[in-house]
Each structure stands twice: as structure tokens, then as C-alpha cells.
Write a structure and sequence with these properties.
single chain, 230 residues, Alpha-Beta Plaits, 2 domains, four-stranded antiparallel sheet, 8 helices, 58% helix
Length: 230
């Protein structure tokens, strides 16, 4: 039982000493935390490439019955065809024409900038482009949708599509996030400074108290020399 209590006391003393060391270095920890946040903010604001997005939404219009209701079979047919339309829009035929008309040399650049998805298995398709230029993002989306509509109408005689949301030039960057990166920078500064203090404590082999000396030497301490400040 004595050994257990002794071990627990040692752990408690260690934690107490570590907390005191952290408190002693609190100024340095705060400075490192603030410095990390400031550096992350400056790097994000001045050195990281900003990305801008533009998007459009395509809606497949279902056929209407004579009674004025949406044709159930047409709705099911549209839902099944949506994924096919997404694949066609992502294909080389459409994207190469987009690149040619926008004077973009590499088709892969257009492909990598685009995100074309079916919204929750509905008759809606979202087309989104993300680049380092807001006007370029809008142009890629607009041209992709225009060429896709033209191809579908001329080659497949599909005319039941409309654009419910037009692509716009968005001057507000979608990435990088200043707030998120600043928080990450602050956390990095906090963790690094606390880690430094912990390592400082871990490798400090000096005996600082009477209890530590008795535990290390295995003999009682007969006297102490007082420390006087100058």
C-alpha cells in the first residue's frame, strides 16, 4: 500500500512541477500562440493562391400530362438519365470544345477545375468551376453548359433542360480560409511552445526539492542551504 501511495505522490509531484513550469513560461506560450496565428494569417493572405468558384444549376423539366400534372414515367426517366448527362458533360467531346473556345491550352485544366454532380438523385445537376480567376471560373461554367445544351439538342434532340441558376462572377474567394488557417496557426504555436516546455521539463535532471533528493539518493536530507536573492 505504501508503495502505491508513494508512486501516486511522485506522479502528483511530477504533474505539479510540470504545471508550475508551464505557468512560469506562460508569457512565452502566449507569444508563440499569437505569433503562430499572425504568421498563418499573413501567409494565407499574401502567399497562398486564392481560389474563386462559380456555379450553375441545370434542371430537367418533366413532361406534363393533359391534366397539368408531371408525368410520373417522365420523372423516373429523367432521374435515371441524370447520371448519363453528368458523364457526357465530363467527357472529352464537351471539355475539348470548352477549352478551344476559351483559349485554354490544356483540356485537363478545364477538367480539373470542374465539379459536375447530381443533386441527391434528383433531376438537378450542379456544375461548378474553381480557378484562381473569378471571371475564368464563370466563363468555364457558362461555356460548359452552353456547349452541353447545344450538343444534346443537335445530336440527341433533347430539349427538356433549363438553367435554373445562372453562373455569376464571384469575387469572394472560396479558399484558402483565413479564419481556419489562423486558428490552425495559433494551435500550432500553442502545441509547439507547450511541447518545448514539456521537453525542457523531461530532460531537466536537477534535484529541486528535499523530497526529490531523498527519493533519488535513498538517504534522509540532514540540512538545507537557503537561497538568497541579490
Amino acid at each position: 500500500m505504501d508503495e502505491i501511495n508513494k508512486t501516486n505522490d511522485e506522479i502528483e509531484i511530477d504533474i505539479s512541477a510540470l504545471m508550475k513550469l508551464l505557468k512560469k513560461n506562460i508569457k512565452m506560450i502566449v507569444i508563440c500562440t499569437v505569433l503562430g496565428a499572425v504568421i498563418a494569417f499573413l501567409v494565407t493572405n499574401f502567399f497562398m493562391t486564392k481560389k474563386y468558384a462559380s456555379s450553375a444549376r441545370i434542371y430537367l423539366i418533366p413532361k406534363v400530362t393533359e391534366q397539368g400534372y408531371a408525368d410520373y414515367n417522365a420523372v423516373n426517366s429523367n432521374s435515371k438519365m441524370v447520371n448519363n448527362y453528368v458523364s457526357l458533360m465530363q467527357g472529352e467531346t464537351i471539355l475539348s470544345k470548352v477549352a478551344d473556345e476559351l483559349n485554354i491550352e490544356n483540356v485537363e485544366e478545364v477538367k480539373n477545375s470542374l465539379s459536375i454532380t447530381n443533386v441527391n438523385e434528383t433531376e438537378i445537376i450542379d456544375v461548378k468551376a474553381t480557378t484562381d480567376d473569378p471571371k475564368k471560373s464563370q466563363a468555364i461554367v457558362s461555356k460548359t453548359v452552353d456547349i452541353f445544351f447545344k450538343e444534346m439538342q443537335e445530336k440527341l434532340d433533347i430539349k427538356n433542360m433549363t438553367i435554373s441558376d445562372q453562373p455569376k462572377v464571384n469575387d469572394v474567394p472560396v479558399s484558402p480560409s483565413k479564419k481556419m488557417n489562423t486558428v490552425i496557426g495559433a494551435m500550432a504555436g500553442l502545441l509547439l511552445s507547450c511541447g518545448y516546455v514539456f521537453l525542457q521539463y523531461l530532460f531537466d535532471k536537477r534535484l529541486k526539492t528535499k523530497a526529490e533528493a531523498e527519493s533519488f539518493l535513498g538517504v534522509p536530507v540532514l540540512g538545507e542551504i537557503p537561497w538568497f536573492e541579490d
